[in-house]
Write the structure tokens for this entry.
Amino acid sequence: MENNSPVIRIAGVADAPEVSRLLRSAMLTYCADSGISSSMLEALTESVESVADRISKQTCLVAETDGRIAGTICIKEVPNPMVYTFSDKTCVFLQHAGRTFYISRFAVLEKYRKTGLGIDLISKAVETARNSDAECILLHSAASNKNMVEFYAKRGFKLIDSENSRGYMRGLFACTLDSL
């Protein structure tokens, strides 16, 4: 990452076009790495306007380095985490999850992968949740994406359930903040 440390900040609606381009690029790589068709990924159907809407309604962070947005992650509180229930197994876990947040649209430009920028972004998202008294953070990822599954595991996320309703095996991962 050249010698510039990334600056992580809250995204503004004006960032939506650049965030949208970043998401599209990263999600195409995610599909290839996961062995899933790009037509199966909801994130690839989003317009710049829908990205701007998410930025205005959630805490969306961006990492800037070398004068451009190189990564992004969104985190929001989910008042009813049961909406993520796949099965009785998930239901039992979520009944005891406490105050829950959800991570989405995590993406890093290819040039900045494996530089620590993704770790910085997810750490900042976890810190944001922790500062809001979160007890649990959830996220989805393709269970077939070995790199992402390992990345999340190293950060305290455990696979709690999986399902195939979108045409690929999608895992629900949870991190309880008392375990970090």
